[in-house]
Structures are given as structure tokens and as C-alpha cells.
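Hi Y.,

Following your request, here is the sequence exactly as I used it, all 250 residues.
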Amino acid sequence: MTISSPAPTLLVLLPGMDGTARLFHRFDAALRAQTAIETQAIAYPAAPLDYAALEAFVRERLPQDRPFVVLAESFSGPLGAALRADPPPGMRALILCCAFVRNPRPLLTPLRHLLGMVPFGALPGFALRQTLLAPYATPALQAELVAALAQVPPSVLRQRLRAVLEIPEKDASPSFARGSLPVLYLRARHDRLVPPANALQILCLAPGTQLVDIDAPHMLLQAAPAAAADAVAAFVNGLSAAQESAQDSD
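Below is the corresponding structure, written out as C-alpha cells. Let me know if you'd prefer a different format.
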């Protein structure tokens, strides 16, 4: 009788503010070059949905027939937190990449009523480069970012930023803290969008969280895909090893 080997671990990727899942290709290639981990990216609808609606959208598209790990990038942090708080069958762990479960810039919350005045469709390349990619910006990375954002209506970007600024009113951290799944946090040393102290909040809410610092800007997976792949592979393979050890001891 032939015993089939288990399927490789599946990594579910939740995108940043663009929501397109177009910006994962560098990280995906780096991951596939060194490991058998498979990926599934979930792109969000180009519609102005809040976090509750996006959570429902994501839950409907999670794997039903195999174990998986969720990687939530930046904007998707609260979605990852919600999944950890009430994990669906098969979810084994959560990876947060330059992400947050609370508003990372609470001083900006009073300005959320002014978002209608922000020209999301005409943001200059310099502003995007300095905020998301500096000091690791390259023409190729900037072009990919601009192309991804061009796929998203300004009204959708505006709603997603509003959702981030309104997190304190519906703070995901208490439920996140009650979760028990393992967590890996990837922190960019040169993140100009999410403060470094944000990772300390995650560590307090989820004791035992593994923290990995990487020389990268906020767009860590895009600017440092190989280093990110190394950290993710080590974490996911460690989960598999722990599970096999537990099964052997039963």
C-alpha cells in the first residue's frame, strides 16, 4: 500500500493597502526558490469595504481542505488579527508583515474627516517612494507600486485609509490577545509608515510572538524578498516540525 505524503504547507497572502495582490510576485518567487511552501494570494474587491466586510470576503476564500498559514501585510493586519481571534478550520499560524492591529498613527485620527480632500488618484511618485520604499526605492519597484495603485479607484483607497484611522473605535487587539495561534512578526528597520514600537504592541498582546527585523522599507516583501522568504520558511518549517514531533509522541 502506498502512503501519500502530506501536501506542502499553503501560505495564504493578504495584501496591503492596494488590495490587488499584484505586489507579491518577488516574494513568491524567492519563497518557491528555496522551499516547497505553496502560496495563495487573495485580492480584495475594488469596492469601498470596511474591515468587517473584508473579513467576511476573506473567510469565504480560505482553504477548506488543507492546513494553512496566513500572512497579513500592512493594511491587512486587522484581518489577520480577526482570523487569529476566531481561527477557521485549518489555520495553523499568523504572520504579520509591517502590519498592525491598532491604528499605527493615532494622532492622525481626527483628520479622517478630511480624507475627501486627499487626491489619491494624483499622489506624486516622490511621496510614494519616500513613504513606502525609501531608502530602497528602485525604478522597477516604484513602477510596480504605481501600476498596482492605478488598478484601485481613489474612493476605495480613501475608504481603506479611513478604516485604518477608525480602528480605535473598533479595536481588534482584545480579541487578538485571546487567540492562541503562533505569530511571526516581520519588522522593517526603515519603515516610515508603521512605527517600530508597533511590534512591541504585538509582542505584548501575543506573548511568544517571534520577531524578525529585516533591513527594508515598509514594502518589505517587495524590497527584501529573499530575507523575507528566509524568515517565513524558517517559521513555517518550524511549525511542521513541531506538529510531526507531537504526532510521534502520541
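The chain has a mean pLDDT of 86.

Thanks again,
Q.
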